[in-house]
């Protein structure tokens, strides 16, 4: 490998990081109350009007930090799911993770609505519990004759996703208007409730899980060669597949407990990163993290600005941006 070949992925990652910084800074500027860059810098330095400091430090900055954290985590989760299934259409939605986390939150809201709404740790805990339960069921149902076929894993995941969604609809019939409104907001995916308290508990969880995910890069590269080859090279395929699935589930459900369902990000961001840096997971994982953070920061910033003071949920804009990107790819390859 030549020096130029080694430097190319690093250059691409540096450019992606620079793009993230640019959109992050623009996000501090945009909103219902537009601030000049000098006002933003003054607020970051704890100078200027107290109202400007309040807007920047307590409203916009935590939302943008949370967007970076959640976007990166969901994208890395998508790479793990696509790697373990060897299918680029795999995502937290298609394997039932999103539906499982939603079902857990719905159960918490039905069984103890006031406690779930007042205690900030109830929703994330219910999200992780529901997602882990559905994931274990998916793996158990897909496990046959000592192995798990990736195609069977996706089919079972889709079936469990539909079943969980149906159960969520039934549970919604038992909710009052306020609780149901909270669920609708959660399902649309929004960073609007983000604050420093959410970051303090979510950041250590997501950062540790992402470090573990990055350490699986070589294993994912070997698994991409196929089960037979991977086993021949000494990789315990089923054990690694279950570990990657569990890791992706924990990452997705932890984020869903704070920001709701932004499932399309786990499909779109890995695709974008793969087109930029290729299929080597040692580069793909950090590239996907940067792509996901960029997309979610962009979506949240546009959602606050486009129809201000009305806010568009970030999950809706991620779907629009990601869907437009896939339509562009389809039109480009059609000819």
CATH first level: which class? Mainly Alpha
Average pLDDT reading? 85
* Strand segment count: 2
Instruction: State the CATH topology.
Output: ABC transporter involved in vitamin B12 uptake, BtuC
The total number of structural domains is 1
- The spatial strand order of the largest sheet comes to 1-2
Q: Judging by the overall fold, what is the CATH architecture?
A: Orthogonal Bundle
Provide the low-confidence segments as ranges. 1-5
Provide the gyration radius in Å. 20 Å
Number of helices: 15
Helix and strand sequence: HHHHHHEEHHHHHHHHH
Structural class: mainly alpha
Going by CATH, what is the homologous superfamily? ABC transporter involved in vitamin B12 uptake, BtuC
β content, as a range? under 5%
What is the 3D shape?
A: globular
Share of residues in helices: over 70%
Distance between the termini: 35 Å
Strand count, sense and barrel status of the largest sheet are: 2 strands, antiparallel
Oligomeric description of these chains: single chain
Q: What does this entry look like structurally?
A:
The protein has 335 residues and is mainly alpha-helical. It has a single domain (24-81, 90-334), classed as ABC transporter involved in vitamin B12 uptake, BtuC (Orthogonal Bundle). Helix content is 78%, strand content 1%. The chain contains 15 helices and two strands. It has helices at 3-29, 37-44, 50-85, 97-111, 113-118, 122-142, 150-172, 177-188, 196-214, 217-223, 227-232, 237-259, 265-277, 281-305, 314-334, and strands at residues 143-144, 147-148. A two-stranded antiparallel ribbon has the order 1-2. A hairpin with a 2-residue loop joins strand 1 and strand 2. It is globular. The relative contact order is 0.17. Residues 1-5 have low confidence and may be disordered.
């Amino acid at each position: 490998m030549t020096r130029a070949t080694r430097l190319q992925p690093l250059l691409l990652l540096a450019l992606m990081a620079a793009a993230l910084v640019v959109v992050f800074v623009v996000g501090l500027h945009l909103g219902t109350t537009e601030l000049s860059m000098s006002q933003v810098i003054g607020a970051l330095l704890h100078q200027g009007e107290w109202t400007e400091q309040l807007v920047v430090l307590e409203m916009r900055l935590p939302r943008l930090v949370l967007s970076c954290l959640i976007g990166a985590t969901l994208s890395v989760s998508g790479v793990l799911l696509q790697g373990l299934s060897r299918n680029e259409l795999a995502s937290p939605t298609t394997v039932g993770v999103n539906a499982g986390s939603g079902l857990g939150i719905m159960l918490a809201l039905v069984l103890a609505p006031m406690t779930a709404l007042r205690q900030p740790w109830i929703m994330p805990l219910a999200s992780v519990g529901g997602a882990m339960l559905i994931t274990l069921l998916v793996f158990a149902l897909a496990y046959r004759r000592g192995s798990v076929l990736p195609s069977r894993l996706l089919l079972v995941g889709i079936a469990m996703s539909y079943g969980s969604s149906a159960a969520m609809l039934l549970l919604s019939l038992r909710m009052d208007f306020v609780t149901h409104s909270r669920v609708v907001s959660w399902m649309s995916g929004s960073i609007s409730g983000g604050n420093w308290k959410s970051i303090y508990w979510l950041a250590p969880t997501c950062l540790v899980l992402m470090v573990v995910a990055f350490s699986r890069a070589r294993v994912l590269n070997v698994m991409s060669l196929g089960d037979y080859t991977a086993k021949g090279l000494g990789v315990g395929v089923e054990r690694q597949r279950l570990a990657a699935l569990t890791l992706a589930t924990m990452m997705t459900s932890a984020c869903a407990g704070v920001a709701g369902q932004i499932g399309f990000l786990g499909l779109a961001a890995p695709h974008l990163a793969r087109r930029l840096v290729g299929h080597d997971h040692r580069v793909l994982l950090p590239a996907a993290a940067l792509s996901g953070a960029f997309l979610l920061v962009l979506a949240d910033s546009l959602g606050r600005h486009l129809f201000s003071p009305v806010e568009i949920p970030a999950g809706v804009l991620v779907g629009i941006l990601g869907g437009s990107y896939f339509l562009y790819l389809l039109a480009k390859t059609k000819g």
